[in-house]
């Protein structure tokens, strides 16, 4: 019995036409990149499913560990392929079940008969197989709803597929199938979660981080690099652009009254991000704003900040509670990195009080005394770009 194949079922079944072929192409590329350490893995994609063939059983086990974090997969099952005859199906089913612990477990047979020429119909085959299995494994308990072991048998014209376990996939859409954006990544708890949520919707991104040395330390940058590495595990290489922000921030503090300086800081960040967005062919900007969480995240503040750009700003956390965000951060492994105690540029320069309802005209008035646009262009061009994960750009050629 050759236990080396995984059957992958896609998510987002409503996709049609061109979108669907792009979805499949991206998913295939992402899986290939994610499994690139495994040795020889071959793949075959069809309209509604994909097959992965490994050479060794250890590789199959490793693939089972990696696949649940890849977006665009609804579910997957390791399968054994046999001839589409009753004899072979019976024999292979017993072998497949022989690999799992059956004592006292609940059980059901699920048959999908794609080849209608098969001599038994679905119900008959279900009965026949169920009886056969129970004679050999009498300690299995038949249960129709949520059985612990689901013997899945699919009969196609050229072969039958048999599996005893279906794993849940991450859902969503393959990263890169829905365009490329730029994530404003602070090192706090929220922005990594915002990036993850957009990846789930198929968006790949570059990340931009504003650093203000010597007020912010190298450890703050290391932290952001670690977050980028962690996010890379969900399916895409991420380039990181670090912006030297000290001088611009000091100028803001000098030029703008303290209760408006946070608003101006955010507006300048947006302007710099806008420049980097254009240079990286990104379509949107992503932030970790959550409505009302802090002074800079009221609707009035958001309006004042948005005013500097026409680019769509994606804020996937806008309606989420902090607790929900923390739960996701824990699940995706960024929380422990985010709570490392290194200040980012905003914490260092935070004034004692911020206006929760900044007026755009006032902010623009104070900004008009300085050639901020020149400074924005300068810091954008001074960015330091790296790829913190070990993958290289070539591994993900399709995405960038
Ligand atoms: P986070 O937890 O993501 O730091 P926050 O709750 O601290 O968010 P703010 O400090 O108001 O909220 O930042 C709002 C958003 O602005 C962040 O989610 C991030 O997208 C962006 N941002 C803030 N500081 C930086 C920075 N130093 N570099 C890049 N982006 C930043
Ligand atoms: Mg923050």
TrEMBL record:
Q: Which reaction does it catalyse?
A: [ThiS sulfur-carrier protein]-C-terminal Gly-Gly-AMP + S-sulfanyl-L-cysteinyl-[cysteine desulfurase] + AH2 = [ThiS sulfur-carrier protein]-C-terminal-Gly-aminoethanethioate + L-cysteinyl-[cysteine desulfurase] + A + AMP + 2 H(+); [ThiI sulfur-carrier protein]-S-sulfanyl-L-cysteine + a uridine in tRNA + 2 reduced [2Fe-2S]-[ferredoxin] + ATP + H(+) = [ThiI sulfur-carrier protein]-L-cysteine + a 4-thiouridine in tRNA + 2 oxidized [2Fe-2S]-[ferredoxin] + AMP + diphosphate
Q: Which InterPro entries match?
A: Rossmann-like_a/b/a_fold, ThiI_AANH, ThiI_fer, ThiI_N, THUMP_dom, THUMP_ThiI, tRNA_STrfase, tRNA_sulfurtransferase_ThiI
CDD domains for this protein: PPase_ThiI, THUMP_ThiI
Instruction: Tell me the organism's taxonomic lineage.
Output: Bacteria, Bacillati, Bacillota, Bacilli, Bacillales
PANTHER family for this protein: TRNA SULFURTRANSFERASE
Gene3D superfamilies the record matches:
3.30.2130.30, HUPs
Give the family, as the similarity comment puts it.
Answer: Belongs to the ThiI family.
* EC annotation from Swiss-Prot or TrEMBL: 2.8.1.4
Source gene? thiI
Q: What is its main location?
A: cytoplasm
THUMP domain ranges (all copies): 61-166
From which domain of life does this come? Bacteria
Specify the species: Sporosarcina ureae
Q: Which SMART domains does the protein's record reference?
A: THUMP
**Listed pathway(s):** Cofactor biosynthesis; thiamine diphosphate biosynthesis
Q: Magnesium as a keyword?
A: no
UniProt-annotated binding residues for ATP:
184-185, 209-210, 266, 288, 297
Please describe what this protein does. Catalyzes the ATP-dependent transfer of a sulfur to tRNA to produce 4-thiouridine in position 8 of tRNAs, which functions as a near-UV photosensor. Also catalyzes the transfer of sulfur to the sulfur carrier protein ThiS, forming ThiS-thiocarboxylate. This is a step in the synthesis of thiazole, in the thiamine biosynthesis pathway. The sulfur is donated as persulfide by IscS.
Keyword vocabulary terms for this entry:
ATP-binding, Cytoplasm, Nucleotide-binding, RNA-binding, Thiamine biosynthesis, Transferase, tRNA-binding
Q: Where in the cell is it found?
A: Cytoplasm
Q: What is this protein called?
A: Probable tRNA sulfurtransferase
